[in-house]
Write a structure and sequence with these properties.
The structure is a single chain. 36% of the residues lie in helices and 16% in strands. The chain is built from nine helices and six strands, in the order H-H-E-H-E-H-E-H-H-E-H-E-E-H-H. It has a six-stranded mixed sheet with strand order 2-1-3-4-6-5, with helices on both faces.
Length: 256
């Protein structure tokens, strides 16, 4: 009976091997377990010492610090994603690629516009426009995407930017307050009241961030007591929240 499809059943009946009874509850448990997902986090327009990179717990991280708009950079990112996807599949993992974008927003800064008002009604602001026009290509490499600028930045109101948000399907939104993440004014002063707006293709990214929309601060630091350059970087606390939001995207996609 060695060549028979019943070979192992015959061995069991003769007492040569023991066949454990099927544990139905364990089988059902395995079926109900969410599939493991490898998150690949790609950060566009980041710093060399990116906060997201330092707290990253994703399967893979790719940070693009310059020339995001160049075709060569795009192709390099695409190749790196392919390598990580293949590594994930070789490990038996599903894969989810999330792009987080923090384009330069100096052109629409309220502080800058006090000195030189922004009157242009399109997205032609030097380094910003070519980056924005490259985003649809990056989105095609992603499973989800998010973008962040300060709430009061004038770029949000420009027709070109509004059109871009629609085209990229960045329809979900969350607003957070920096004071909730430990940002304070100069010399350890009052909490910083600056707000950041995040938009995403995924509700799962925005949902955990909305808990930081309100604060209980009695007072915020005055404008002249804020180091505005430092508020342009993600500290460890905010980076951790964004890392968690990115992982929530992957989990939601796996459960869908």
């Amino acid at each position: 009976t060695k060549c028979s499809t019943y070979h192992f059943q015959h061995r069991a009946s003769c007492g040569f091997v023991k066949v454990a009874p099927a544990n139905v509850s364990e089988v059902l448990k395995r079926k109900q377990t969410k599939p493991q997902v490898a998150l690949i986090l790609v950060e566009l327009c980041c710093q060399e010492d990116s906060g997201l990179k330092s707290v990253n717990t994703a399967f893979g991280y790719i940070g693009v610090t310059e020339k995001c708009e160049d075709m060569k950079t795009y192709k390099d990112v695409r190749a790196r994603i392919d390598v990580l996807r293949n590594a994930a599949r070789a490990s038996g993992l599903d894969c989810h690629v999330h792009f987080h974008v923090s384009c330069p927003c100096t052109a629409g800064s309220p502080v800058r516009s006090l000195r030189s008002p922004v009157e242009d009604d399109d997205i032609r602001f030097g380094e910003l426009e070519p980056i924005l026009r490259r985003l649809p290509s990056y989105k095609r490499l992603s499973d989800s995407m998010s973008l962040e600028w300060p709430v009061n930045n004038k770029l949000w109101g420009l027709p070109g930017v509004k059109s871009m948000l629609v085209d990229l399907e960045l329809s979900h939104e969350a607003v957070i307050r920096l004071c909730r993440f430990g940002y304070v004014g100069r010399q350890g002063g009052l909490p910083v009241g600056k707000r950041l707006r995040f938009v995403s293709t995924s509700e799962a990214f925005c949902k955990p961030l909305r808990r930081y929309q309100q604060c209980t601060c009695a007072e915020h630091a005055p404008l002249n007591a804020v180091d505005w350059s430092s508020t342009g970087f993600y500290n460890a606390e905010l980076s951790g929240a964004l890392n968690g939001a990115s992982k929530a995207c992957a989990s939601a996609a796996a459960s869908a």
